[in-house]
């Protein structure tokens, strides 16, 4: 089982301009491997892309992904 979450980030450039990004993170609870990816938007497409990213890189098959049920993890994710 993997646990997945999204964190809101703000980066500040040298000129003072702020940029918003979203960090998708997942941790496999059995083998303690972590993956993370920074995305420009926090919507279902980003979540689906991140799940595919996780599947490609983890050395074990993923059976279950636990989320906190926020808007990024809704119906389209279940069909991916």
Task: Describe, in plain words, how this protein is organized in 3D.
24% of the residues lie in helices and 38% in strands. By secondary structure, it is of the alpha+beta class. It has a 4-stranded mixed beta sheet, covered by helices on one side. The longest helix has 14 residues, at 44-57. The mean pLDDT is 83.
Gap from first CA to last CA: 17 Å
Count of strand segments: 4
Largest sheet: 4 strands, mixed
Proportion of strand residues: 35-45%
Global Rg: 14 Å
Task: Sum this structure up briefly.
With 80 residues, the protein is an alpha+beta fold. It is built from 2 helices and 4 strands.
Question: Main attributes?
Answer:
single chain, 80 residues, alpha+beta, four-stranded mixed β-sheet, 4 strands, elongated
How are the SSEs ordered, and which strands pair?
Blueprint: E1 2-12, E2 18-28, E3 34-39, H1 44-57, E4 65-66, H2 75-79
Parallel strand pairs: 1-4
Antiparallel strand pairs: 1-2, 2-3
């Amino acid at each position: 089982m993997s646990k997945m979450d999204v964190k809101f980030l703000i980066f500040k450039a040298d000129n003072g301009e702020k940029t918003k990004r979203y960090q998708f993170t997942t941790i496999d609870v059995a083998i303690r491997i972590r993956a993370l990816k920074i995305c420009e938007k926090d919507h279902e497409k980003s979540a689906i892309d991140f799940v595919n990213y996780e599947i490609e890189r983890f050395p074990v098959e993923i059976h279950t992904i636990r989320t906190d049920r926020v808007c990024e993890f809704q119906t389209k994710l279940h069909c991916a």
